[in-house]
Design the sequence.
């Protein structure tokens, strides 16, 4: 079954939004995400371009400046809320894991 | 040393993996893609090296773009940031290359990539595919309609057979592309739904090369055969000229469109020019078809020039002196010498040969003996029974060119008779009003002879029957 758009975030979506907590040029995200994740997560230039368009359409980010063909963005309140919801979901997953495996480890 | 080259690459539009692998092999041989035109892929000479290629589909691209749009330039900047340089673009297709040993792919999320591919194909590939398929279906319908109406005329004519083969090849080509794409799309949707990667695209280009080669071969043979028959059947000439005109016109449109794009005008101007060109061609082609219909089709009969003419009751009639394989004089002395010898039809293809001839007296001597016959030579044994049934069927003549039918006529009924005197394998005689008639269908190893003896009190003896068999059946 197809995944519902932005109901959950992929790692690439998550880190792209995380980068935009402060004003950032789109293409700088291409360097920041690998640096932030110790190269565990790489994001393709085409994928990032599409993601930024979709985040803009969903008003999760907004454009704050243009320099030549370079555009800078920042997270909106809606984007922050999305990140927070995702973090809570992941925290809940982690808690469930610890509850199950924590009991087994105590045995 | 040659610094540039161009190649004809018949990849399916969505065959991304095939295109990327082919371009990588070209780079290893020292050729880098620099432009994709409507017909060819253009390369320039480089140092042979290992390059990675990536084909990206941009749903907002257009076949009318002569240069990248602002959005495409911004996309190129993103790609350049990770080492991907634009090699070429055409319509929704953008091709990048990267010199790094292990570059980050341009697309790293299949869930975002698949909709772009689907949209691009829907906008670009499917309209073109629909036009091509419509043409193929139209030509196939034309061929099969004629085949059902006048099978012998079609099966004995090489040009027409090749025309049908071309039409069917076009249809097969369309079907291969469509089925291949639909299968890939279904697999891709399923894979993405399960969180997997996009499946490899199917390689359809070997099939496309084979079809193109066959189409070219057919076209060459068709034109050669057509040139031989240019003075003959105008109905076939009409069909073949239509086909050639359509392909030639399409080629001219593609070439002119290519020239228009080189002027690097805007998408809007290119679109207007291209549409005008297509309209102009369509009007010209329609005028050609109408011209052919009105000026060529009425004279569709094979005929030699009359040797002389005579008047009978105020009407003028022609007398022919064609060479025909069997005459009344071969069988007996008719005591009459004003016969017309006419070869109505004489055609051969790799499947069948068909000859139809007639020897008839003048209108003022209808009581004199007359002879008419057809000889079907079956080169493909599979068709033998069908041809025999056709000869025994209820038709006055066997080809639509000279077909005469009377709706009130009772159906022909043939009975089996002794084939021995005819030296045939099977012999049939027509019954007319429950009486044996002088119409015979004689089956030999490869030939089927349908012969009609007309005239008062003309009954063939065994020697004459043997001569018919030796002359027409062997």
Sequence:
């Amino acid at each position: 079954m197809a995944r519902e758009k932005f109901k959950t975030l992929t790692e690439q979506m998550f880190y792209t939004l995380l980068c935009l907590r402060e004003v950032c040029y789109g293409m700088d995200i291409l360097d920041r995400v690998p640096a932030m994740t110790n190269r565990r997560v790489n994001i393709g230039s085409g994928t990032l371009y599409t993601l930024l368009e979709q985040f803009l359409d969903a008003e999760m980010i907004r454009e704050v400046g243009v320099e030549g063909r370079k555009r800078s963005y920042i997270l909106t309140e809606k984007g922050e809320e999305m990140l927070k919801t995702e973090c809570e979901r992941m925290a809940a997953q982690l808690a469930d894991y610890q509850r199950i495996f924590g009991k087994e480890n105590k045995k | 040393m040659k610094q540039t080259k161009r190649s004809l690459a018949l990849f399916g539009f969505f065959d991304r993996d095939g295109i990327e692998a082919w371009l990588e092999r070209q780079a290893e041989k020292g050729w880098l893609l620099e432009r994709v035109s409507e017909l060819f892929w253009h390369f320039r000479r480089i140092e042979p090296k290992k390059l990675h290629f990536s084909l990206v589909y941009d749903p907002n691209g257009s076949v009318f773009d002569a240069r990248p749009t602002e959005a495409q330039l911004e996309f190129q900047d993103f790609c350049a940031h990770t080492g991907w340089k634009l090699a070429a673009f055409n319509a929704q297709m953008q091709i990048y290359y990267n010199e790094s040993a292990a570059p980050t792919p341009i697309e790293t999320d299949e869930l975002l990539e698949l909709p772009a591919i689907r949209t691009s194909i829907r906008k670009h590939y499917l309209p073109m595919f629909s036009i091509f398929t419509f043409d193929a279906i139209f030509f196939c319908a034309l061929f099969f309609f004629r085949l059902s109406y006048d099978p012998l005329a079609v099966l004995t004519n090489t040009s027409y057979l090749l025309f049908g083969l071309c039409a069917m090849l076009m249809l097969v080509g369309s079907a291969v592309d469509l089925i291949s794409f639909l299968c890939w799309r279904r697999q891709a949707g399923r894979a993405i739904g399960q969180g997997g990667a996009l499946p490899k695209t199917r390689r359809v280009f070997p099939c496309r090369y084979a079809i193109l080669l066959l189409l070219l071969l057919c076209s060459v043979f068709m034109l050669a055969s057509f040139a031989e028959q240019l003075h003959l059947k105008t109905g076939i000439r009409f069909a073949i000229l239509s086909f050639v005109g359509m392909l030639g016109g399409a080629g001219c449109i593609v070439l002119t469109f290519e020239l228009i794009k080189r002027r690097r005008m805007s998408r809007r101007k290119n679109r207007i020019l291209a549409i005008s060109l297509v309209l102009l061609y369509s009007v010209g082609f329609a005028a050609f078809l109408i011209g052919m219909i009105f000026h060529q089709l009425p004279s569709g009969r094979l005929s030699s020039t009359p040797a002389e003419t005579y008047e009978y009751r105020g009407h003028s009639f022609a007398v022919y002196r064609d060479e025909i394989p069997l005459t009344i004089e071969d069988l007996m002395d008719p005591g009459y010498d004003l016969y017309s010898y006419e070869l109505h039809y004489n055609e051969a293809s790799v499947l069948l040969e068909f000859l139809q001839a007639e020897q008839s007296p003048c209108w003022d001597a209808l009581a004199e003996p007359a002879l008419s016959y057809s000889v079907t030579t079956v080169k493909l044994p599979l068709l033998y029974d069908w041809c025999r049934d056709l000869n025994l069927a209820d038709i006055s003549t066997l080809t639509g060119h000279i077909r005469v039918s009377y709706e009130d006529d009772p159906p022909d009924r043939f009975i089996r008779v002794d084939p021995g005197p005819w030296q045939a394998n099977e012999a049939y005689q027509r019954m007319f009003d429950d009486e044996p008639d002088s119409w015979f269908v004689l089956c030999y190893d490869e030939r089927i002879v349908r012969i009609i003896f007309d005239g008062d009190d003309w009954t063939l003896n065994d020697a004459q029957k043997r001569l018919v068999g030796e002359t027409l059946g062997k």
